[in-house]
Write a structure and sequence with these properties.
single chain, alpha/beta, 11-stranded mixed beta sheet, 4-stranded parallel beta sheet, 15 strands, globular, binds threonylcarbamoyladenylate, binds magnesium ion
């Protein structure tokens, strides 16, 4: 058991975190999407610690986080479409999978041996200050145990990984609350490998694609069928709670729900609340001996698509009808 150093998002806190990364340590930190677990991308020992602490399959590559969009060219090749997307969405919550340059310094543990690199430049101010203080490339998965619910506050990270990581920067609650959208670009086509905080419609608008038909199918290797799972079972598309169920609602019709992702029926607000409420209602289900969480239907519009993707995976092993 390690003592996890609790750091504030002050200048001193960020400097300590950057030093810990330089020494091969691993650090929990906020991004605008979810909390990440950072390691020096060029240090195989540090990167292996991330996989060990999360219980993550070593075949599942990590996203490279850069402090400055201009750094991406050191690591990867950007075609015209990729440049357009990066100009439009960086800093921000879009991850772009790019062909890696042969001489890039990211260790093969981080890429899982792939010849591509998933790259993102987060917009969260604390994340940017950490990346800039460290100077080099950082890899960061979400700071949760593999397969479990993602973290959107420092308290979530503390609960899952406290005593197993070197330090944790508390930067408050994540403003988007949903992971980055991952796209792969090549041969004029765009594949969405993971729906996330940037809606498909925004990407389509940026590159002049038809939202409904313009995207090619694709999936990130780490998107397991069962993922993001709470302890309680889930019953999806529930219009009310049955006996022995707690209810995670959405919209104005879910008046008696224990938690409501968005009373106004807004998918961006629901995405922001999603992981925090899933954790809270899971705790309530345990406390009240209700084995099942009933979840209201979420519309596929906007960030609803990303929420429904997470719900389907969260329900995969344990769903009830
Ligand atoms: O919002 C986010 O992206 C957060 C924050 C911390 O930045 N990070 C995150 O990382 O969600 P993680 O490890 O939980 O999910 C990364 C996903 C995995 O599904 C992985 O398989 C995929 O990215 N990925 C990484 N490198 C890839 C590559 N070269 N090609 C395709 N998918 C890749
Ligand atoms: Mg994750």
């Amino acid at each position: 058991m390690l003592e996890t150093l609790e750091l504030a998002s002050s200048r001193a806190g960020i400097e300590s975190a950057a030093d810990i990364l330089r020494q091969g340590g691993i650090v929990g930190f906020p991004t605008e999407t979810v909390y990440g677990l950072a390691a020096d991308a060029t240090n195989p020992l540090a990167v292996r610690k991330i996989f060990a602490v999360k219980g993550r399959p070593v075949s599942n590559p990590l996203i490279l986080h850069l402090g400055d969009p201009a750094q991406a060219r050191r690591f990867a090749v950007l075609d015209e479409t990729a440049k357009l997307l990066c100009d439009r969405f960086w800093p921000g919550s879009l991850t772009v999978v790019l062909p890696a340059k042969p001489s890039h310094p990211v260790c093969s543990e981080a890429t899982a041996g792939a010849t591509t690199l998933a790259v993102r430049v987060p917009s969260n101010a604390v994340a940017r200050r950490l990346l800039s203080a460290f100077g080099g490339p950082v890899v960061a998965p979400s700071a949760n145990l593999s397969g479990c619910v993602s973290p959107t506050t420092a308290a979530h990270v503390r609960r899952d990984l406290g005593g197993r990581i070197d330090a944790l920067i508390d930067g408050g609650r994540c403003s988007h609350g949903m992971e980055s959208t991952i796209v792969e670009v090549g041969n004029g086509a765009i594949r969405v490998l993971r729906d996330g905080a940037v809606a498909r419609a925004e990407i389509a608008a940026a590159v002049g694609l038809a939202t409904q038909t313009g995207f090619r199918p694709g999936a990130a290797p780490g998107q397991l069928a069962s993922h993001y799972a709470p302890t309680a079972r889930l019953r999806l598309n529930a219009i009310e709670a049955r006996d022995n169920e707690v209810w995670l609602g959405f919209g104005p019709d879910a008046g008696s729900a224990h938690f409501n992702l968005s009373k106004a029926g807004d998918t961006t607000g629901a995405a922001r609340n999603f992981y925090g409420m899933l954790r809270a209602i899971d705790a309530l289900a345990t406390k009240t001996s209700c084995p099942t969480i009933a979840v209201s239907p979420i519309p596929e519009r906007g960030l609803g698509r990303a929420i429904n993707d997470r719900l389907r995976r969260a329900a995969h092993d344990n769903s009830v009808r």
